[in-house]
Amino acid sequence: MEASEIRYIPDGMNAFQRNTKRIVDCLLALFSIILFSPLLAFCYIAVRCEDGGPAIFKQERIGRFGRPFTIYKFRSMKVGAEEGDPSLFQGVDDDPRQTKIGRFLRKHHLDELPQLWNVFIGDMAFVGPRPERAYYIKLIEQEDPRYYMLYQIRPGVTSYATLYNGYTDTMEKMLIRLQYDLDYLEHRSWALDFTILLKTFLFIIFGKIF
Fold first, then answer.
1. Following DSSP, what letter does each residue of 1-25 receive, concatenated?
2. In angstroms, rounded to a whole number, what is the distance separating the alpha carbons of residues 184 and 181?
3. Cβ neighbours of 88 (radius 10 Å)
4. Alpha-carbon distances, residue 209 vs 100, 159, 166, 167 (angstroms)
5. In a 10 Å sphere around its CB, with 0-12 CB exposed, 13-18 middle and 19+ buried, how is residue 122 labelled?
6. pLDDT tens for residues 44-53?
7. Could you give the CA distance from residue 49 to residue 128 in angstroms, rounded to a whole number?
8. How far is CA 183 from the centre of its chain?
9. 157/117 Cα distance (integer angstroms)
């Protein structure tokens, strides 16, 4: 994409809407941590008991303003699986690096539960572009330099792209996800966030793969 073709995309929310969204996210994250504390404890123990490795997986991602932060997940892969060059997740049923418990957690999206803490402390929002690693952002920007526009907003636990683009295991999917995320940036609102959250909840409840 030529530089002359790039149109700057502003945030669809105004300052009041953004601040209100942040307050609601913080309160909802705190409530969810308390409500799901038994489930969090169960997942923690299950991961630890399978192979004795750490239950929490930590990885640096790039967030708002292009600043790195640490994302938290329940570990779904074998210890050491992420060492060496970055590699993309190949899907719940295909990636041989997964543990048995990890496959179950991934399938039901329970591995994402620790990100409630990321939301509570302000690194993430419930709805927003999924945060990416710096390594892949550089590759994406070689194909489409508009990625930096996403730095206006906090990355999210779920997004429209998450629901309809699936796991981004190819560069083609990464570029499709970027377009979804830029569309969200331009048109986001409380109503759109609520719709995405509701669809995410329904997809999980009814076992839809995404």
1. --GGG------SS-HHHHHHHHHHH
2. 5
3. 15
4. 18, 14, 8, 10
5. middle
6. 999 999 988 9
7. 33
8. 17
9. 11
